[in-house]
Amino acid sequence: MLSFVFAFIFGFCTPLVASRFGKFLPTDLGTVLASLWHCPRCPKCLSPQWVNLFYGKWRKLLRWCFVWACLLVFLFYLIHLNFDNQSQVWVKALVCILALLTVIDDRYFLLPDVLTIPLLFLGFGFSIWGGEISSAASFWGSVYGYLLPSAAVLFIHPFIKDSFGGGDVKMLTALGAWFGFYGLNIVLLISVVSFFAWSLWSRRRSGAYGPHLAFGSLVYLFISHFQYTHFF
After folding, report:
1. Torsion angles phi and psi, residue 119, rounded to 5
2. Distance, CA of 184 to CA of 92 (rounded, Å)
3. To which H or E segment does residue 5 belong?
4. Model confidence pLDDT, tens digit, residues 48-104
5. 228 DSSP 8-state letter
6. Count of C-beta atoms within a 10 Å radius of residue 142
7. Domain ranges of the chain
């Protein structure tokens, strides 16, 4: 029960953290923690137009907070059904970080080191204590996750500028530590299909790729561990 309460609170706070994220760059951990509690000063005389705009933005933000809270609770429920107790804590941490990366990248086109680096070390920890993949598979998966986009940029860059950002490379490195060589290839395939579908729907040729990597990771994670017996 406490796990679901935490999921709701964390999910509810995710858009709030992302909305404040651009206010305290660079993204070292100390600045993040200090700036989260900063209360901005408001002018003494506020026009009715400004007040309406302010409350309109907050209503929209709070709706997204509720959506993310429900989504995190649902994902935690799936984790509870499909993972053993030893793996659940690690996978829940993965889901929480992916949620933050998704919202921040969608808003600022940025995958900050303060999230991608811990995600990498959590992936190594998951291989050691989570029992899902071997430590060797995690290590070589992270190496593959780093080298693959680097090699792709080498060939694509002369034709398409800024095809991959540094944050995308670090996120792929971290996901390689979580899923290994085989799993990362499936994650990449799902993310490419997801980005292509989004591009057709939005009629845009470029956009944040982190949300699609996160989506691919979750799809692979739950499909590879799906236990249909819980539903019958």
Report:
1. -60, -35
2. 19
3. helix 2-21
4. 554 555 556 677 788 889 999 999 999 999 998 888 888 899 999 999 999 999 999
5. G
6. 25
7. 2-29+47-231
